[in-house]
Amino acid sequence: MRSSLLSPSRQDSTVRGWIIFDSQNLCVCSALVAAVIASGASAQSWQNLISTTDTTVPGIAGAVWVPNQFNNPTIDGAGRVTFRGQIGGAGITTANSKVIMQGNASGWTLIARDGSPVPANTPSGYVFNTTTGINGLGGSNTINEAGGILVSGNINGAGNSATLDTAAYFVDSTGAPSFIARESDAYPGGGGSIVTSSFSLSSMKVTSAGAFVLPVTLSGGDVSGTLNNAAIVQYSPSGATAIFRKGSPAPGFADGTTMTPDTFGINLVGSKLEFGGTLVGGAVTTADDKARFTNIGAAPGELRMYYREGAPVPGMTDVFYKPTTNASSAVSPFMGDGILFTADLSGAGVVVGINDRAVVVESSGSVEVMFRRGESVPGVTDGPTFFAMNNTSFIPNRTGMIAFQAILQNADGTGIPTTGTGVYVGVRKADGTKLMICRKGDPVPGIANSAFGALNGSTSICVGDNGVVVFSNTAVVNAVNTIVLLAWDETQGLRVIAKQGDTNFTGTPANQFTLIGSTGQSGDGGGTGMNASGTLVIKVADSAASIHTIAMIDLAPPASSCPADLNQDGSVDAIDLSGVLSGWGNPGSADINDDGVVDGQDLSEVFAAWGTCG
């Protein structure tokens, strides 16, 4: 959703932002512009929100912040920031020193604290802590775009035992808490077994309804050794739902083939689900036992196998998914109703090391190749071709753009270029156009005698629905390594927004800039390190002086004269129509009229502006 100043129907005095209600959804609309105006800050400038040098901790008398104990902050659609920190001072011990806070420069709200009652007071009289009085609250990077927070960790109280000592709660954007689950809860699929997995969750993707999907282990009841002792369960404030259990018939098989679900790479965005597993029994061999499943395109309540190693690749004659050690993984996978994933290839015309890997989108049985090993790369004129993505820096937004960091190879497949310039950061626009943002060895904009260092693996890319891309890198400046933080969009280009040595964050030279990167994704399909409108939040530190700060910046491009042109390509067309349909019912950059939800009015805006923008 583009930044705008909206009239609220309710303002919460605890500075939770501006909230509007409709009959279907609770949508939190952007109050960031109001907060920035009130603070005197301007767009494209940093705003420090909270620092370990602050002499007080909001809401806790006599407390001070412990240096180096802010975790990675996250931000919701209204510009509210959530983080976990540690406090010290008189009367504060390991039993009550961790806190989760939400707010911004206008004020903060204490969401949870070690040693304090658990949300919803369930179980009654329990607090966050172990029986030894430490390590209560888990991570706090688990938010949705409406400001809801998944709070979890160790709990302690009367009757506690080792199998009952973790639980999960959801605190919605109004501050209303709900109990979700606790260790030793009954498995919702029946059979009398219980869940023995920990509910001390971190970096979980949670939807606007407070739902998340978790791999769990089971014991008791009908559990038979290791044959059926694991499952995938969806949890939410409205209850738990069994998705799949180890040893159950694999979706789509009628020959006795079962499946063991993976405990990693499980994805939920809204109601869209995706996960992988290993097939067992039937006619399965090690050459075709890895598969991935989704509910997209399946009958209600059922799953569909969209990938299996050894199977033909849809639309590619005599080309197959090559057997691998692990099933091909989907990374932030959903693009509309398609699933974005990487796969190794074999078969006709496939040459190992030359063109044997692809990045594809599967949609209801058809496949579109986004990238393929060996293809030319825009901006590369010295010979190298595309080799592979770095899956931890490979993120789509909800308007169809992909931001990524990738590796080049010599055209003959003999490895990365010997010149050492074989890594780059780029984007693929919704219309299929591919652009290079920067390449190792390129000069850093605005810094004399500089060059981009090794971009590989450390870029921590964040991307907004409005096309803003942010990443970090080590730049070589006068032969000295320097950390730089960069932003890019098509309108403003590549620019440095912070660098090592800056003093405007901590008052002393900063030497650490931490982006949450690809782990900052919500179950609503958007980013939580940078929200849909392009507001970024980071952690900054001067580690030498033990000063740590959380800061944010509005990186939104200048307002478009044609707001229905979502991908800013100069025309309103089928790509923009798809963006509206993909974002239907949610807040986001496809909310053309800024009313808090993508609906028929935004669809009308697209049709009214159809054609060339001018």
Low-confidence stretches: 1-43
Number of separate helices: 3
Global morphology:
globular
| Count of domain modules | 3
N- and C-termini, Cα separation: 22 Å
| Alpha-carbon Rg, integer | 24 Å
Q: Assign the structural class, choosing from mainly alpha, mainly beta, alpha/beta, alpha+beta, or little secondary structure.
A: mainly beta
Strand content: 35-45%
Q: Give the fraction of residues assigned to helices.
A: under 10%
Major beta sheet summary:
5 strands, antiparallel
User: Care to count the β-strands?
Assistant: 41
Taking all residues together, what is the mean pLDDT?
86
Short note summarizing the structure:
This protein is mainly beta. It has 3 helices and 41 strands. The strands form 10 sheets. Strands 5, 6, 7, 8 and 9 form a 5-stranded antiparallel sheet that branches. Strands 18, 19, 20, 21 and 22 form a 5-stranded antiparallel sheet that branches. Strands 23, 24, 25, 26 and 27 form a 5-stranded antiparallel sheet that branches.
List keywords for this structure.
about 40% strand, 3 helices, single chain, about 625 residues, mainly beta, Type 1 dockerin domain, 3 domains
Q: What does the model show?
A:
This protein has 614 residues and is mainly beta. Helix content is 4%, strand content 38%. It contains three helices and 41 strands. Strands 5, 6, 7, 8 and 9 form a five-stranded antiparallel sheet that branches. Strands 18, 19, 20, 21 and 22 form a five-stranded antiparallel sheet that branches. A hairpin with a 2-residue loop joins strand 24 (330-335) and strand 25. The longest helix is centred in the last third of the chain and has 9 residues, at 574-582.
